[in-house]
Design brief:
7-stranded parallel sheet; globular; homodimer; two-stranded antiparallel ribbon; 48% helix; 357 residues; 15 helices; TIM Barrel; 11 strands; alpha/beta
């Protein structure tokens, strides 16, 4: 097993001291980069990009060539999983994802199955190829959507602003929703374990929509299934610990519950105050986040100032990975990303120097 | 001054004992009611409905005729205010609001003014006429959008899912955004005071979009201006205290800060746990909320069960007004609203009986 040249990200997730705060950005390979748009134009559709390991590797590495990021993340989409379950995923240009066969009745939900991982071979091939292409420079992060977040898309059939179909199901046939979530949890566990076997050195669970639930419903319909997954993951591969990061957008009220799942780290959205989060979860978990992605729409000096402000809320203690509080916008100027990354590295080194006095 | 037949709502906002928990619903006059759709068809556009005091009165009273609700709320829209500032509001069918002249540069923002309240006379006429038509049955609630929420629409020019224009402004020219927010705060203060003078017996500030901000930005760009408004409101009219309710959707992490503004009550969205909220704010404020509006998409028995569950999180102590955690959906079956209202009244009477033991 080749040693990593830069293991700062993994060390921070283990809450070990690091010389500076590592940084990566959710959706760091994406439309804000002209080289991404060029590859995408060559590949065809968004899913053509995901399904081709060479293209997926190319776009995964693009942001690392531009910025000194401390981790790479598999280029893929959370909806590969329900697509493999036979729901018929497509992306209409400018419209977001859509499923041809959303789950709207008992028959559809009861017919659902844990898919053969062969249907997701293209993802695992991409993981292997990216890991190889990284040549031990920085760690590779694998990921999946959470069971509840996947269920939102599977039941709504597309994005939603009121989630009325899944809430109708939740509040009329909770048994059917639990059936669906249990299948999703088993699928995601296997999906992430196979990513780990193929080279993912950390994994992240994206619970994009858990925040649309009441506290009681979050615990019952989202958190319980993420806990199952955390318990079922391979936490060691090739002698190395594989950390798990849990991220619920809008989950700032539930950090204590999330920390109790046994995960290694919590992803924080940008509404959460870093110091408050640390006070609440103590040293049970590392924290990842949480600059407002909207800051990147501002001026370079404000990007630097806000980046320092966020770093200061977490302080120089071990156990922080810098990130945005949500995915980077396609409209973000990449020069601002450069400012962000260099500010994280420089200011966090200063924090440590100052802390040592 | 005629005494109210049912002052349960006002008593609960003053944290005085009541025989049962009062209930009203955000957007209770609206599209889920067939009688609303009929009036709307007669009136013409949504703004035609708002601008005609007779129609506004008719739709305000419709839900009270159907359900034993404990308060009426003025039928209007938060965007009447920027419309009066000359931004040119329209509602394209099925598309939401749009401004012809969004604020996108320094000149536009510096040209903004506190409008003459004469431009909003139709709102105050509706308040007077509704108050008269209620004949002292239940109290009338006036309302406004918060300065930040209004600014979101004024800068974005429409609804948004990333708020990138206002965030670009916030993180490049915060001085201009503060200029805009200060004008909005002065306008909203006068707007609400004029509603109070015309008959509103309680007022509510809707901060629909404060929850898209970081903790630091929420305090600086939303809460600070709501605090100014609370300080500037007439809190007594005709010898009666006029309570102020503050509602930030997605504000569950900031309840202590909100309670410190001097308001009488906090509106809670459905993600907040009632017991946790009460423990955090103590007896400084009343609490209003917070059933997930999505529950109304479910079965009648689940509506009743979830309504009881939410009531139980608040307990039988004085100072709770039942509501949804956000506006009712146009798709909510009105039979479920009937179940909700009767369950609130029946279960909350039982809670008090049981508490007395």
């Amino acid at each position: 097993m080749k040693q990593l040249e830069n293991d700062t990200f993994l060390r921070a997730l283990r809450r070990q001291p690091t010389d500076y705060t590592p940084v990566w950005l959710m959706r760091q390979a994406g439309r804000y980069l002209p080289e991404y748009r060029a590859t995408r134009a060559t590949a065809g559709s968004f899913m053509d990009l995901c399904r081709n390991a060479a293209f997926a590797t190319e776009v995964t590495l693009q942001p690392l060539a531009r910025f000194p990021l401390d981790a790479a993340i598999l280029f893929s989409d959370i909806l590969t999983v329900p697509d493999a379950m036979g729901l018929g995923l497509s992306f209409a240009e400018g419209e977001g994802p859509r499923f041809a066969r959303p789950l709207r009745d008992e028959h559809a939900i009861k017919s659902l199955y844990v898919p053969d991982m062969a249907a997701l071979k293209y993802v695992f091939d991409a993981v292997s190829e990216i890991r190889h292409a990284l040549k031990g420079s920085v760690p590779l992060i694998g990921f999946s959507g959470s069971p509840f977040t996947l269920a939102c898309y599977m039941v709504e059939g597309a994005g939603s602003d009121d989630f009325r179909h899944i809430k109708a199901l939740m509040y009329s046939r909770p048994d059917l929703l639990h059936h669906l979530l249990a299948i999703n949890a088993r699928t995601v566990t296997t999906y992430l374990n196979t990513q780990i076997e193929n080279g993912a050195q950390a994994v992240m669970l994206f619970d994009t929509w858990g925040g649309v639930l009441s506290t009681a419903a979050y615990r019952e319909f989202s958190l319980a299934y993420m806990r199952q997954i955390v318990a079922g993951l391979k936490r060691e591969q090739d002698g190395e610990h594989v950390p798990v990061v849990l991220f619920t957008k809008g989950g700032g009220q539930w950090l204590e519950d999330m920390a109790d799942t046994g995960c290694d780290a919590l992803g924080l959205d940008w509404t959460v105050d870093g110091a408050g989060a640390r006070a609440r979860v103590g040293d049970r978990v590392a924290l990842q986040g949480n600059l407002d992605p909207g800051v990147l729409m501002g001026s370079a000096d404000q990007v630097a100032a806000e980046t320092c402000r966020v770093l200061d809320t977490f302080g120089p203690q071990p156990g922080h990975v810098f990130n945005l509080g949500h995915g980077i916008s396609q409209y973000a100027p990449y020069d601002n990303v450069s400012v962000l990354v260099s500010t994280v590295h420089a200011h966090s080194r200063n924090q440590r120097r100052f802390a040592k006095g």
